[in-house]
Structures are given as structure tokens and as C-alpha cells.
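User: What would this chain look like folded?
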Amino acid sequence: MTLSSRLQEDLTKAIRERDELRRDTLRMAIAAAYNTQKAAGRELTDDEVLQVLAREVKTRRESIEAYTAAGRQDAADREQAEIDVVAAYLPAQLSEAEVAALVKETIDALGASSPRDMGKVMAALTPTTRGRADGKLVSGMVARELASRDLAGHDSTGH
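Assistant: Here's the prediction, encoded as C-alpha cells.
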């Protein structure tokens, strides 16, 4: 069963069970996938549907920040509940320690040593972390690790 058909089946089940949160969240996710499919002009692969779902989660995380800053905890809670519904379809999330280990491994494997290598490192990491870790978290860890290696490199070379 494809991810799209699973979403559609779960939507039907949510409608039958009168689960408004799941129904509305799945409708939004299916609509986002449909719009992406129309733009692509073809059926989406499961990986592409996962990318759409990850983007939906990211959008909601940004909304939570905005709502929390505006003192709208009720709206932030609703967004978090929607994230919980969508996250059930995403691969298991990586812990911060797992992301940190992947960042170090990738930087070592590429021989990256300064912030100038950020793009190269992110290009190598993204396929592994997409949908499994927040992109902001990954890029922040890469930037910190590269900056610390750059400083260490300058200290040891005497520059």
C-alpha cells in the first residue's frame, strides 16, 4: 500500500469515527500532496509524499513559535496536535545525539574543515536526515562543528 493510499484510508476512518482533528489534519496533508502532485504532473513516490509531510510538520513548528510568541497557547497546542497526527506517517525521528554523530561522521568522511564546506556537508547529510530530523537542528550542528574545527585548525597551524 502506498503512503498516499494509506493517508486516504486513514482519512475515511477518521471521518467515520468523527475524529475532527485527524480528519482535518489528514485533509490538509492530502491537499498539500495533491498540489505537489499537480505541479509535478505525475503521481508522487512515497519519498516525495514523505517530503510533503515533513514540510507540513516544519510549517506547523514555525506556527507554534509564532503563536507562542504571540501568547496564543491554544493555537500552538492545536498545531502541536496536528504535528502529532502527521508525525505518525514519518520515519522515526533521530535523537540529537544521533544527529550529532551523523554530523561528525559526515564531516570526517568528507574531510570538511571550515564553514565554507557547509554546503558540501549538508548535501551529503540531507538524504539521511530528511523527514527524520529538523533541518534547522541539523544545519545548526553542522555550522557549530565546522566552526569549532576551523578554530582548531587555525590554532594548530598558527594562523
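Residues 93 and 132 are 4 Å apart (CA to CA). If you want, I can go into more detail on any region.
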